[in-house]
Amino acid sequence: MNWTDILGNVASGGLLGLLGTGVNFALGYFQRKQEHAQRIESLRLEGELHAAKTAGDVAVAREQGAAGAFVASQQAEANIGRSYKWVEAVRALTRPGLTLLLVLLAAVLRYSADDATRAYIDQNIIVTAAAAVTWWFGQRQLDRSTTSWGNKTAGASVSTKS
Questions:
Q1: How large is the greatest C-alpha to C-alpha distance in the chain, in angstroms?
Q2: What are the C-alpha distances in Å from 118 to residues 7, 105, 125, 127, 152?
Q3: Alpha carbons 132 and 103: distance in angstroms, whole number
Q4: Residue 109: how many CB atoms within 10 A of its CB?
């Protein structure tokens, strides 16, 4: 073996070592890049999960608040007790009476007004009357429907008061 063979072997071994180091570095780079992408995706999914959990917690809190308000209003109603028949009749007719008055007032104003006032009424008062009627009487139907659906799904026989 002469000096040129020895130098050639050293050079080729060095080059192979450098090539191996470069390949190892490149593979490590791509592995870290993939790990970072997986971590980013994991954080994104955790964020979505947290957002969904928060939305669920808000919905539960809203429903618990509504249920608490409903129970409190029913207890307040029960605490009023019995009174004269005419007082109970006035109390029972307050909501329907106000609704009828609101609808009649909107109709009278609508058909007796000039064009500018009619446009104002069309945009505001009619919407308000529709919202009141829907809110006041729609809630009763919603309660009935919810109770009916709950009875069917739970195999129960709960009845509504209204």
A1: 127
A2: 103, 13, 10, 13, 47
A3: 10
A4: 15
Distance CA(139)–CA(143), nearest Å, equals 6
| pTM flag (> 0.85) | no
Q: pLDDT of 70-79, one tens digit each?
A: 788 778 777 7
How far apart, in Å, are the Cα atoms of 91 and each of 82, 96, 97, 112, 141? 12, 10, 10, 32, 20
The backbone torsions φ and ψ at residue 159, rounded to the nearest 5 degrees and listed phi first, read -115, 160
Residues 15-69 have pLDDT tens digits of 777 777 778 888 888 999 999 999 999 998 888 888 888 888 887 888 888 788 8
